[in-house]
Amino acid sequence: MKNNDRKRAYWKEQMDAGFEFMQTILNYPVQESMEKLVFLPDAVKKANIKVEFSTVQRITVSKPIFRLREGIIDNFISAANELNKNSLVMRVEDAFRTRQMQNPLNRTQEIFDSIMRVILWECEGKIPEPEFLFKRVTVLIATIPKICTHMSGSAIDISILSMKTGMEIDRGENYLAMNEKTFMDSPFISKKARENRNMINEIMLRNGFYAYPFEFWHYSCGDAFAQYLSKSGQPAIYGPVDLMDESGNVMPVEDYLKPLFSLEEIKKKLEESLKRMQK
Which of 79, 59, 57 minimizes the C-alpha distance to 68? Predict the structure, then answer.
């Protein structure tokens, strides 16, 4: 099998597995704790550790909201501190998202087009049906509140920087890359990138954060992802919530099984993306 065919086959295999994972999470029990959402920069300042926060706005409706649930702030600080002790700095790319932020249709054109390009590559140029695109986007962004751990305030997307140089360490790809290297256990990355991924996973796990198998930058704690991956047998204590005020009070999302967008909306987005690519 040619290398490109191997990459395509691996991508398909992982994306199918990712969708099955999400179907399992849809049915995972949640006993909502109602913990507040805490502003991470304040927690970092109080702890006197070094953490960076992304200044890039990748979602059209809002800048990143750097908040996590109160019960995992100590985990976050401890993980960031352990990275510092290893001469590394965590850069938080994303944390809590509102339902408007989580909606894939509100990603920038660049991000949506990057998803479309890799799906067209998977389909060998054939235009996918909206239902197929919905399944693929579900793995990469999450399309239903119940499976959106960013909406639970229990997940962070991170990049890792060298404290000495300020540059990202090699993890095989950059944040939000959409290709065969996106998956945590991808065989298409270098030995050094594998070592770095494993090291970060070990540090995060020691501090209660579980790695999402289908994106090497995504970690969560206390939610359905973490409980399922840890095989704890315990219900999640964080489900999708709305942020009610600046003090961090939350309210559970009622329609948590309702998709964040319709097939008609994704079809329109697909057509717009294809037009941009043909220019």
Answer: 79
Tokens read off for 132: 């197929």
Instruction: Please spell the DSSP secondary structure of 238-267, one letter per residue.
Output: B--EEE-STT--EEE-TTTTS-SS-HHHHH
Task: Round to whole Å and give the CA distance between 103 and 269.
Answer: 12
Q: Do 161 and 169 contact (CB within 8 A), yes or no?
A: yes
54 vs 73: CA distance, rounded Å: 18
Structure tokens at 30: 């949640």
Q: What is the CA radius of gyration of the chain?
A: 18
Measured distance CA(183)–CA(161) in Å, rounded: 20
**pTM, to two decimals:** 0.94
What are the residues facing 160 on neighbouring strands?
90
The burial class, CB within 10 Å (0-12 / 13-18 / 19+), for 13 is exposed
d(CA 59, CA 121): 24
In which residue are the tokens 């600080």 written? 77
* Rounded-to-integer distance, Cα 145 and Cα 254, Å: 10
Residue 25 CB burial class (10 angstroms; 0-12, 13-18, ≥19):
buried
Tens-place pLDDT, residues 171-198: 999 999 999 999 999 999 999 999 999 9
Mean pLDDT (the chain, rounded): 95
Exposed/middle/buried for residue 84 (C-beta within 10 Å: 0-12, 13-18, 19+): middle
Q: Which amino acid is at 216?
A: F
Domains detected in the chain: 3-278 (3.30.1380.10)
- C-alpha–C-alpha distance, residues 254 and 171, integer Å: 38
